[in-house]
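Hi team,

As requested, here is the filled-out complex form for the zinc ion run. I kept the field names the same as last time so the parser does not choke. Let me know if anything looks off before we queue the next batch.

— J.
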Amino acid sequence: MDKLIQGMVGNGDARLFAAITTATVTEAVLRHGTSPTTSAALGRMLTGAALLGASFKDFDRLSVKIECEGPVGGITAEADNDGHVRGYVKNPNAEAPAKANGKFDVRGIIRDGTFYVIREAGFDIGFRPDPYIGSVPLVSGEIAEDLAYYLAKSEQIPSAVLLGVLLRSSEPYVAAAGGVMIQMLPGANEHIVTMVEDTVSRAPHVTELIKEGARPIDLARIAIGELPFELLGEQDISFKCTCSPERARTMIAALGRDEVRSMLDEDNGAVMTCGFCNEIYQLDGTDLEEILASELA
Ligand code: ZN
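And here is what came back:
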């Protein structure tokens, strides 16, 4: 099971979030059949959503979204309060040649665009105020830097973010995934800010360490060195979608009587694919007749 920890760095200088997301990213990659570079991009976004979700308190759904000019077209990742994440890309087949250093050219499939963070609340009381939407232009296209830039620019939180996905050529394709996010608190010791930014920017290949069994606390240690760290919480992280056979049925019913009638007459059934998780829901003729007789009667 993937885990995320959070805690306090130094003397109340910063909040730290660290997560191992190998299983979560594996499930997303297998569900969407993404190309290697797209897998790396989606994995970083899902990990970023999990870390950011843990850092915000008051929301029911947090979405991290990139809309871009590059061949991937766009990436969306969502997190809820319980560590469930889900996500998808517009074009799962987008690919770019590896960089000179052998790393995936994530920027190559993203290029220029906009980075969005959307927070929605009020689900439990059935009241939906306008979502809070923040956005910044993409500054790097490698995702971790874009998330850090978003936090600094849009939330006024100087931050350092590290996101990594290590792939392998055969199933289950994802060898390791994880990340660290450090958010400076007001009045943070300048020395600590510089030190953390420096350490994170030169961080060794964390994914190699995750592959060898590193835990979230080990990632935290890599990022903050010997600085004091107080562990404040731990939670599970997993890929989980909100779709279900009942929801698929509701969505078919929402198409209206004429549409459902013609699905019944022409195909004797209907097929729905969830965009977030690629789950396929099949309704047969009897299901459609039931919808016509109950929901659309
Ligand atoms: Zn789904």
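Two things worth flagging: The two ends are 45 Å apart (CA to CA). The pocket of zinc ion is lined by residues 241, 243, 274, 276-277, 279 (CB under 6 Å).

Thanks,
J.
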